[in-house]
């Protein structure tokens, strides 16, 4: 009898341990929410590396828009990591939906701390860290500037060495284009770029930095200044409005999406386009117009002979951990593993000899077609946590897929001369002023309305609205922060 | 009159041809606007791109599964309901019809429905796309009218002979109502096939994406990576990519269309003319 | 003389006897009602969000109660009124164009004598109905966009392009044209079948009286189709506040938000899209209630005019 009882007890003990053991071994799978893509993940080389090296199996799911993200947050669904654009990051913070991860990073994220050095202020509030700041992929480069059909300019005497660098010469050139090519639009712009009415080359002549990612906030006289207070704004707007009225600028500008402006450029309806290096299907253009050639126009000088432009720097995106995650520590560990130097290289760049090799200068060179085919969407898996120190270099290799695109990028960078400046608030945290986006949008719309209608009263209205409804708080916050952190 | 009719027909057909043509032309031809109704410098690069580089195959399968299962279950439920409601003397009939009408016009709203789906733990499942639309009050009423058009004498004869309602339904009413039923099937199937908004909100797991959502993403949300414009030695462009996606979404429907056409004309006839 | 007294059955007993006598029919009704209950009625419990200031972290229960505040905002916010105006204008315009047109088209198609032509025209005209709105958008943008061939032709004539998808007025034209393209052919089926049920004798009598085709159409065909048209109109009026979501969502872009935003897209983009959850729910409820009112009104009007129930 005793034997039976003791055997039963032992059996229970073993079973119990087995159950406990099983639960302890129960696999932790992480759920990462990333940006939309229309391709299958599993085909990409980057995905394979992630599964191998992250340390935990990761299931990737995708969100297709802010609406879906908000719906997910509203019902508290469980995810371990979410890729966030700037706007989505703000929304998450407003809804108090992100975990503060400072301690977790200290404990589990040595690679994270090693890889990201200057960007932390953008994600720190009240001393706590709320996301991993992922570097903009091309800092210190110019995102938007004017790109022209050099072949057409050559025909009217504006060869590469004769391109205008002063405002009046620029106006003359536009008029000459209109006279020589009456069927074409001299300059086409879309309404997507931010802030909407600032064209980098032209704004440069008025001392305004544009062409980057936060153009509305300038550094003037050592202080952070919002565009509405910038002394160069009114003269700039008057000038641009003049161009608009003379039909030297595409009159579709206020309402035109990037796709449409691009289509005009590609279809040969415009001579100059306000573009980014990735904004035009260059190969197609070269086939359609065999004599085609393009140039990046120089930034126009102000009265002191200096150029001004804003570089595309700071934080490109954010990697946050929502409060619904049940495995935040594991998520940080996984991210830490993926940011490890060699792993990051495998994902961002690929395998040596298969996807890339070193050329005679020691720079990375892509091996086609493997690079295009297998690493096409690799960046999507690490987009929320790029290594600040090296990822921009990997990113530039992607440019090599297309020689023209690469040339455009480097030309735009070169046109900065010594006038390229990072936005003063590139890595500033959120101000906490509630209606900041609404205020900014109102100014945006007013600038655009002025450029197209010449109605300065709209700008004055926006000026008053900004100052009365919290705009001054925003600027004061940034200015104080700037003085404390950046000087 | 005949001329006018031809014009109407062409107006409906030509835009479709235009998109077809663009999807099969070279990027150069499309960019220089020389493509109207027939492909120029024909190239299948666009179609190949969609087939190989996007989740087209998987989403297509998803749509087929969702449509077939949704339509069959819905058909089952709708037939039963419409049959029951087609008996004017059934007590409580007015009340139930009122319930259906109410649910047809009154919706709790996008967010409340989303919350409810979450309570059922149906988010990110295939069922979230199928279940909510199993009942369409409008089509239930169409079928109801169809059943009401069946001569009473037929049913009475069967009932007198002692047949149960089930037997009456299956042996007498259904065989006579093939046209109405075919109509319902087509309407329901097409609705399931084209529906994208539910997936837009409920689905984040890629393997569950239906074709309609992929279409929405390709047309409205994404643009081609500049670097992909060299595929199979051809040149692609955003326009060709979009046109190809549209064409490949249209093809399954166009393929089935001839078979459907036979039925739906008759069915709508019966269902819509009242009194 | 024997009188057999049947025991009097109570109402309750009679009720259950009835049910038992027709139990199959009630059984048949159950699946449909279950689905409706689960997916149409159950979510109504969540409408309470509209009366609170919903914060995700607090959940529904934990969020604070604000009563009618969100609804007050609907009436005070000028943007909401603009959107409501848009919704009504766009839908009414569409109804005005899309309800009579199929009737006229049916009359015309009826006149076609050549059978193969009739069949092929019908086939072509029904197809657009089966495409999803995203496809319709793509087709229209391809034709009317800045680089589409319609604009190409316009440029040759006037030297300028028409911003169909950019300026509000033109954009509404796009919405209406695409509705016509997608829906007209299909709706003609209803009218064609109505025509086929007109007594042939009436036509014969008219022909004897010397009426030509046009007069026949004017005095016989069209008048007999009016009731059907009223029916279709009634049904469509019911969706004058809630309809068009799929279409507008697929068609619109930032430059036409001002004039093309309808209630549904407004809720989606500005409500949910800006995590303004309570407000989004309140507007949604408002939309449903108004929609219900419209349906009831049009049902009432239709009954007055044609003397019979819609359903």
Care to give the gist of this entry?
Chain A has 487 residues and is α/β, with parallel strands linked by helices.
Question: Number of DSSP strands of chain A?
Answer: 17
Helix content of chain A: 40-55%
- Specify the CATH homologous superfamily of the largest domain in chain A: Periplasmic binding protein-like II
CATH level 3 topology of chain C:
MetI-like fold
Mean model confidence by pLDDT of chain A: 85
Q: Outline of chain C, from the CA principal axes?
A: flat
Looking at the overall shape, the CATH architecture of the largest domain in chain A is: 3-Layer(aba) Sandwich
Structure overview:
The complex is a heterotrimer of chains A (487), B (275) and C (311). Chain A has 487 residues and is an alpha/beta fold. Helices cover 43% and strands 14% of the residues of chain A. Chain A has helices spanning 2-25, 45-53, 66-74, 86-94, 102-108, 110-115, 150-155, 167-180, 200-204, 233-245, 258-266, 282-288, 328-338, 341-348, 370-374, 391-399, 403-414, 436-453, 456-468, 471-485, and strands spanning 30-35, 58-63, 81-84, 124-125, 128-129, 132-135, 145-149, 185-188, 217-220, 223-226, 270-275, 294-296, 309-310, 315-320, 356-358, 364-366, 420-421. In chain A, the strands form six sheets. Chain A has a five-stranded mixed beta sheet. In chain A, strands 8-11-7-12 form a four-stranded mixed beta sheet. In chain A, strand 9 (217-220) and strand 10 form a beta hairpin. In chain A, helix 2 packs antiparallel against helix 14, helix 10 crosses helix 18 (436-453) and helix 18 runs antiparallel to helix 19. The longest helix of chain A is centred in the first third of the chain and has 24 residues, at 2-25. Chain A is globular and about 110 Å long. By secondary structure, chain B is mainly α. Chain B is built from 14 helices and two strands, in the order H-H-H-H-H-H-H-H-H-H-H-H-H-E-E-H. Chain B has a two-stranded antiparallel sheet. The radius of gyration of chain B is 23 Å and the shape is globular. The model of chain B is unreliable at 270-275 (pLDDT under 50). By secondary structure, chain C is mainly alpha-helical. Chain C has helices spanning 11-21, 23-41, 59-62, 69-76, 78-98, 100-110, 115-126, 133-144, 149-158, 168-196, 200-208, 213-237, 245-251, 257-260, 263-272, 277-306, and strands at residues 52-53, 64-65. A two-stranded antiparallel ribbon of chain C has the order 1-2. Chains B and C meet through helix 1, helix 4, helix 5, helix 6 and helix 11 of B and helix 2, helix 6, helix 7, helix 8 and helix 10 of C.
């Amino acid at each position: 009898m005793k034997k039976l009882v003791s055997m039963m007890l032992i059996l229970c003990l073993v079973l119990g341990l087995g159950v406990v053991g099983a639960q302890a071994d129960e696999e932790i799978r992480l759920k990462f929410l990333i940006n939309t893509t229309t391709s299958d993940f599993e085909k990409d080389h980057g995905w394979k590396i992630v599964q191998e090296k992250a340390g935990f199996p990761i299931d990737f799911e995708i969100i297709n828009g802010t609406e879906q993200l908000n719906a997910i947050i509203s019902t508290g669904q469980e995810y371990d990591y979410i890729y966030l654009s700037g706007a989505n990051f703000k929304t998450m913070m407003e809804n108090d939906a992100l975990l503060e991860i400072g301690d977790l990073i200290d404990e589990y994220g040595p690679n994270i701390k090693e890889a990201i050095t200057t960007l932390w202020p953008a994600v720190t509030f009240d001393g706590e860290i709320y996301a991993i700041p992922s570097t903009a992929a091309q800092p210190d480069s110019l995102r938007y500037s004017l790109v022209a059909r050099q072949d057409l300019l050559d025909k009217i005497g504006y060869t590469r060495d004769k391109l205008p660098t002063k405002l009046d010469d620029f106006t003359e050139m536009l008029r000459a284009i209109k006279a020589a090519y009456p069927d074409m639009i001299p300059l086409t712009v879309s309404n997507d770029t931010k802030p909407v009415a600032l064209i980098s080359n032209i704004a440069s002549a008025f001392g305004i930095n544009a062409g980057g990612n936060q153009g509305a906030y300038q550094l003037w006289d050592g202080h952070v200044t919002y565009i509405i207070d910038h002394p160069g704004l009114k003269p700039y707007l008057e000038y641009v409005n003049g161009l608009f009225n003379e039909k030297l600028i595409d009159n579709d500008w206020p309402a035109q999406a990037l796709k449409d402006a691009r289509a005009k450029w590609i279809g040969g309806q415009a001579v100059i386009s306000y573009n980014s290096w990735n904004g035009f299907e260059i190969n197609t253009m070269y086939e359609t117009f065999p004599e085609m050639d393009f140039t990046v126009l120089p930034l126009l000088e102000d009265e002191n002979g200096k150029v001004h432009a804003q570089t595309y720097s700071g934080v490109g995106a954010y990697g946050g951990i929502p409060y619904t995650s049940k495995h935040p520590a594991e998520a940080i560990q996984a991210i830490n593993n993926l940011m490890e130097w060699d792993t990051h290289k495998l994902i961002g760049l690929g395998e040596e000899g298969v996807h890339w090799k070193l050329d005679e200068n020691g720079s990375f060179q892509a091996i086609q077609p493997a690079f295009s085919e297998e690493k096409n969407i690799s960046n999507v898996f690490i987009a929320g946590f790029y290594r600040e120190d090296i990822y921009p270099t990997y990113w530039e290799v992607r440019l090599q897929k297309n020689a023209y695109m690469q040339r455009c990028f480097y030309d735009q960078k070169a046109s900065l001369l010594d006038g390229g400046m990072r936005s003063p608030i590139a890595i500033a945290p959120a101000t906490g002023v509630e209606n900041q986006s609404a205020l900014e949008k109102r100014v945006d719309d007013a600038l655009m309305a002025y450029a197209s209608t010449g109605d300065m009263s709209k700008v004055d209205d926006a000026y008053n609205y900004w100052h009365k409804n919290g705009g001054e708080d925003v600027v004061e916050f940034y200015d104080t922060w700037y003085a404390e952190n950046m000087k | 009159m005949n001329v006018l009719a031809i014009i109407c027909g062409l107006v409906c057909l030509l835009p479709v041809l235009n998109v077809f043509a663009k999807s099969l032309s070279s990027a150069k031809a499309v960019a220089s606007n020389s493509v109207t109704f027939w492909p120029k410098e024909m190239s299948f690069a666009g179609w190949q791109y969609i087939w190989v580089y996007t989740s087209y195959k998987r989403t297509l399968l998803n749509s087929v599964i969702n449509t077939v299962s949704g339509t069959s279950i819905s058909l089952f439920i709708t037939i039963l309901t419409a049959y029951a409601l087609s008996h004017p003397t059934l007590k409580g009939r007015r009340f139930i019809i009122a319930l259906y009408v109410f649910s047809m016009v009154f919706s709790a709203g996008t967010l409340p429905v989303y919350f409810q789906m979450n309570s059922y733990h149906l988010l990110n499942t295939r069922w979230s796309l199928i279940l909510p639309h199993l009942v369409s009050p409008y089509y239930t009423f169409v079928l109801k009218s169809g059943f009401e058009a069946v001569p009473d004498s037929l049913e009475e004869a069967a009932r007198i002979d002692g047949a149960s309602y089930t037997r009456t339904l299956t042996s007498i009413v259904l065989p006579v109502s093939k046209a109405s039923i075919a109509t319902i099937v087509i309407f329901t199937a097409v609705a399931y096939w084209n529906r994208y908004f539910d997936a837009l909100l409920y689905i984040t797991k890629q393997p569950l994406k239906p074709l309609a959502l992929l279409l929405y993403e390709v047309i409205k949300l994404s643009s081609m990576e500049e670097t992909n414009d060299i595929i199979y030695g051809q040149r692609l462009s955003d326009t060709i990519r979009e046109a190809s996606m549209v064409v490949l979404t249209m093809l399954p429907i166009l393929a089935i269309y001839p078979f459907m056409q036979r039925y739906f004309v008759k069915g709508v006839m019966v269902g819509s003319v009242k009194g | 003389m024997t009188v057999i007294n049947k025991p009097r059955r109570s109402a309750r007993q009679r009720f259950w006897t009835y049910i038992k006598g027709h139990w199959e029919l009630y059984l048949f009704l159950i699946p449909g009602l279950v689905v409706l209950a689960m997916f149409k009625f159950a979510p109504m419990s969540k409408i309470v969000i509209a009366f609170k200031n919903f914060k995700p972290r607090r959940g529904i229960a934990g969020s604070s109660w604000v009563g009618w505040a969100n609804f007050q905002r609907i009436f005070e916010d000028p943007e909401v009124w603009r959107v409501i105006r848009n919704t009504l204008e766009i839908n009414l315009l569409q109804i005005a164009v899309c309800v009579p047109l199929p009737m006229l088209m049916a009359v015309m198609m009826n006149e076609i004598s050549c059978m193969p032509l009739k069949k092929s025209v019908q086939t072509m005209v029904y197809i657009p109905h089966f495409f999803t709105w995203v496809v319709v958008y793509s087709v229209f943008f391809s034709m009317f966009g800045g680089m589409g061939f319609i604009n190409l032709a316009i440029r040759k004539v006037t030297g300028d392009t028409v911003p169909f998808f950019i300026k509000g007025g033109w954009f509404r034209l796009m919405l209406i044209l695409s509705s016509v393209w997608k829906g007209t052919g299909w709706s003609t089926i209803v009218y064609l079948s109505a025509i086929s049920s007109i007594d042939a004798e009436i036509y014969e009598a008219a022909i004897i009286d010397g009426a030509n085709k046009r007069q026949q159409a004017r005095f016989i065909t069209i008048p007999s189709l009016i009731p059907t048209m009223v029916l279709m109109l009634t049904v469509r009026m019911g969706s004058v506040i809630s309809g068009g979501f799929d279409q507008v969502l697929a068609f619109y872009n930032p430059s036409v938000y001002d004039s093309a935003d309808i209630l549904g897209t407004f809720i989606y983009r500005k409500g949910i899209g800006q995590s303004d959850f309570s407000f989004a729910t309140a507007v949604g409820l408002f939309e449903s209630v108004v929609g219900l009112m419209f349906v009831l009104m049009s049902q009432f009007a239709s009954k007055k005019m044609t003397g019979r129930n819609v359903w």
